[in-house]
Write a structure and sequence with these properties.
alpha+beta; Aminopeptidase; two-stranded antiparallel sheet; globular; disordered N terminus; disordered C terminus
Length: about 375
């Protein structure tokens, strides 16, 4: 159960949480599925990746010319949001915990108990185009099948090997879109981020179960589970269906999205709704004038190359939020089971063609 929790945990987390604080400096661009079977750029022995020529990047010479809009102070740019499943407050069996012998004072050989790895469970490309007044959302599935040095692996798992830089490199290759900024947060910090704007209300279509629910749980299980602190294993429903406020207290349950019969498409829809409502609230009159202050607070919970100055330089874009069209695009590809492993198999060439229809992406 806990393993399943890890892979869904962050997917909502940052799509909403980080989206909130980031929402002031990004007019966004998220698609529901991304592509990629590719080698990573040279990072610690990973194979080289050759990006498509710049002239093939987002522009469609045969398509209709976009309408001309009055200039808004600020530049078009892209941000990659990376949500990891690292939860040091909930688990103490990561590598550093074994090295420091802090694992519940239990002597465990590394061969006896596997080390808990870190993954990038949420990868979202957020793009704003001042030239075309577009906000586009594009999500890259963390289980996208990629190749590294001739071997297949899942994109999200590469975070444990190459960190956020490797995820950025892969996202750049898979989309052919230059990535200006990245923002990375774990699920715990994402909850703190969404709290900066006092949570976000969305309609939850079904009852969401408590990720820790396990009526057979015993205290003896805790010693080998890696779980720290008190956990409620008896409460079955964490979020009841209906209009609910999502914040740090229930974000983890929403991201995990454990239900009786919900489909993956329903989960994705709820995640997208949380992202949209977070963005809308973040740029509302209630918060936009406090954007630099709130961003400075929120960015403390992340690792990012974006600064408060970057936000200030593009603040007018966010003030004109209502002038932008918001759309989501689905990356071409399909889910399949290859070599006994469930994964997302992308169509890279078709993806490049799709992204060419968007102008002003990441162009300074």
């Amino acid at each position: 159960m806990l393993a399943a929790v890890r892979n869904f945990v962050i997917a909502f987390l940052i799509a909403a949480a980080v989206f909130g604080l980031i929402a002031w400096f990004i007019t966004i661009f998220i698609a529901d599925n991304v592509i990629g079977i590719a080698d990573t750029p040279d990072t610690g022995g990973v194979g080289d990746v050759t990006l498509p020529p710049e002239e093939t990047r987002p522009t469609d010479p045969d398509g209709p010319k976009p309408p001309s809009y009055p200039d808004i102070p600020g530049n078009s740019f892209t941000v990659l949001l990376v949500g990891t499943d690292y939860r040091p407050d909930d688990f103490i069996d990561y590598f550093e915990d074994f090295v420091g012998n802090t694992y519940s004072d239990v002597k465990l050989g590394l061969l006896t108990k596997p080390i808990r790895k870190q993954s990038a469970d949420l990868i979202i490309l957020v793009t704003v185009s001042e030239e075309t007044r577009q906000i586009v959302f594009s999500s890259i599935p963390s289980d996208t099948r990629v190749t590294v040095n001739g071997s297949y692996c899942l994109l999200g798992e590469r975070y444990d090997k190459g960190g956020v830089d490797e995820i950025v490199d892969f996202a750049n290759y898979l989309t052919a879109v230059p990535i200006d900024y990245y923002i990375k947060a774990n699920i715990t910090d994402a909850g703190s981020i969404i709290d900066v704007i006092d949570g976000v209300s969305i309609n939850v279509p079904v009852d969401i179960m408590n990720p820790y629910y396990n009526p057979d749980w015993t205290e003896e299980d805790a010693e080998w589970s890696g779980i720290t602190g008190e956990r409620d294993h008896d409460t079955r429903i964490a979020i009841h269906a209906g209009e609910r406020t999502i914040n740090s207290s229930n974000l983890f349950a929403l991201m995990h999205y454990r239900t009786e019969s919900a489909s993956a498409s329903e989960r994705d829809f709820v995640i997208m709704e949380l992202a949209r409502q977070t963005l809308r609230k973040a740029v509302s009159a209630e918060y936009i004038n406090r954007a630099p202050e709130l961003f400075a607070r929120a960015i403390r919970y992340t690792e990012s190359n974006m600064t408060v100055d970057d936000l200030n330089n593009n603040l007018e874009l966010f003030r004109h939020y209502n002038e932008f069209s918001i759309s989501t695009i689905s990356y071409p590809g399909s889910y399949s089971t290859l070599d006994g492993e469930a994964c997302f198999v992308p169509n890279v060439s078709e993806a490049y063609e799709m992204f060419r229809t968007y102008r002003g992406i990441g162009q300074h």
